[in-house]
Amino acid sequence: MFWLVLLIAIVALIVYKMSQKEKEKRAFFESKGIKVNNPKFFLITMFKLLTGQIGIVEMIQQIYYEVQGDPKVVGFWDGNTPIIMLKDPEVVKHFAVKEFEHFQDRRDFISEEMDPLFGNSLFVLREQKWKDMRSTLSPAFTGSKMRLMCDLIVEIGQQMVEYLQRESKEKGLQTYEMKELLSRVSHDVIATCAFGIKVDSLTHKENEVYLAGKILSDFSGVGKMMKFMFYRFFPKLMIAFGIKISPPKESDFFRTLVTDSMKYREINNVHRPDMIHLLMEAQKGKLSHGESEKDSAGFATVDESSVGWNKSGRKWTETEIVAQCFLFLLAGFESVSSSLSFATYEIGINPEIQKKLYDEIKSVSDALKGERINYDTLQKMKYLDMVVSETLRKYPPAAIIDRECNKDITLNLYNNLNFDFKKKYAVWIPIYSFHWDAKHFPNPEKFDPERFSEENKQMINPSMYIPFGIGPRNCVGSRFALMELKSVLYYLVLNFKLEPTEKTQIPLKFAKSFGTLQSERGIYLQLRPRNSI
Question: What is the distance between the alpha carbons of residues 109 and 183, in angstroms, rounded to a whole number?
Fold first, then answer.
């Protein structure tokens, strides 16, 4: 009886302490005039995320909509760190652009000690090192460089078509899980554009390059998620034991792949219009911004900011250069392949959209008279751009972006509402919530490319449509991503009719994932060769 009473007393004490802490957290924001969502015990939220009881989208939407009155900002807590979610377009622009100097960095996610490759990539670099790397890389992603690289992507698109046509001829009409199919296509694009090697992962499904890339780019497994948890709460212990996020075997494989290619090219004076060549040129300071840096690859293109354009003079190490190739690998496996699979889903279940898109693609193909599609022709295809833009609205590659304050400073949030930011406080920009907010995009669950027609796109607030981020720390590879999306869709829709089957989940539901948007049950489509219709 004594032990039962003791246990009840301990539980009651814990509940009391938690409730008192929640009151303190609420009072912290309310005393400053900021509305706050109901504070949740951080470990419980993290446990639910890691165990798949809730997904990142559900968590974001809850914070975005929970507070009544539609405030311009909402306060909430990530453990013991106060976060302010930005909900108003002018407030977003103010923090992401005007106050960028104070909110340049993402919050600590993966350090160099945790993962030498990801930890040195542009995505997670901080402070001056980020500025220097951005300055080094940005000239590699101008329109002129993309024109040179487009042919490499087109080759992969044609390789995909040949494989699918061969499969149909030998096995009959085929149904594919599109994320799996297109992750292989995207991987082959990265292999040729970033690593300078030609791989056919559709035909040779167990090739070493694909398998290693798949392991490195998978951040959804329980093992990696547990490592993230332990690194968050016990970083010194994890570093002391030398535990890395990514498996060393696959990391070493890609390091060798890149460094051997760089050495071979240097010795043999080999020039190839791919990312390794551009990185080698950038490392030597030979890349510069030309007149084409403002070229648009579509409505979703983000322009390069003047921040960090000055040559840094920094000598990059081999690891730091390899890390940027590693980042392209991750983007290809996850972001681009997911966007492609969501695009094919919407094209497949919306026959009127598919017909209109096919008509435009067929018209362009006929005009080319057997010639390959090229970068400039892709940019002239208005309806293709509308379809891609709407895909990135409904299924943004990142659900949120965060920015961490780098110094103690008092700033005006809006309407003379001042807030004392301390170093390490952060703001959240909820991209998914913006893109699905009926105030900005009426009937947001509907896939409607006409939102981005010439007549309608002028009414879209640029601070509310941000699939590639906003401000100087936007996605440096937006042109590359759009070029890949359009090239693959061009060849897929030109040669195949995309059809739903009994396995196609309609309407599509999101998996309760911790990171990027994923379909709950996969995306299954039947690909019917058009020459057999």
Answer: 24
Is the distance from CB of 185 to CB of 339 less than 8 angstroms?
no
Per DSSP, the chain holds a count of helices (H) and strands (E) of: 19, 9
Length of the chain: 533
As a whole number of angstroms, the distance between CA 287 and CA 148 comes to: 14
Nearest C-alpha neighbor of 521 from the set 500, 506, 499:
506
CA distance 80 to 233: 12
Please confirm whether the linkage preceding 507 is cis (ω < 30° from 0): yes
For residue 299, what are the contacts with CB-CB under 8 A and spacing of at least 6?
A: 385, 386, 389, 452, 457
* Residue 503 structure tokens: 């396995």
Whether the predicted pLDDT of 39 surpasses 60: no
**Which residues fall within 8 angstroms of residue 514, CB to CB, at 6 or more apart?**
49, 50, 55, 56, 220, 225
pLDDT digits (tens, 9 = 90+) for 464-497: 999 999 999 999 999 999 999 999 999 999 999 9
Cα separation, 64 vs 490, in Å, equals 36
Q: Residue 338 and residue 353: Cα distance in Å, rounded?
A: 20
- How far is it, in rounded angstroms, from Cα 79 to Cα 46? 10
What amino acid occupies position 362? K
Nearest to 522 by CA among 159, 50, 183: 183
Q: Taking residues 145-165, report their average pLDDT.
A: 94
Q: What's 253-306 look like in SS3?
A: HHHHHHHHHHHHHHHHCCCCCCHHHHHHHHHCCCCCCCHHHHCCCCCCCCCCCC
Identify the DSSP state of 87. -
Residue-wise pLDDT for 350-406, tens only, equals 999 999 999 999 999 999 998 999 999 999 999 999 999 999 999 999 999 999 999
Residue 65, burial from CB neighbour count under 10 angstroms (0-12, 13-18, 19+): middle
Neighbours of 145 (CB within 10 A): 22
HSE at residue 47, side-chain half, CA atoms within 13 A, is 5
Model pTM score? 0.91
Return d(Cα 181, Cα 487) in angstroms, integer. Answer: 16
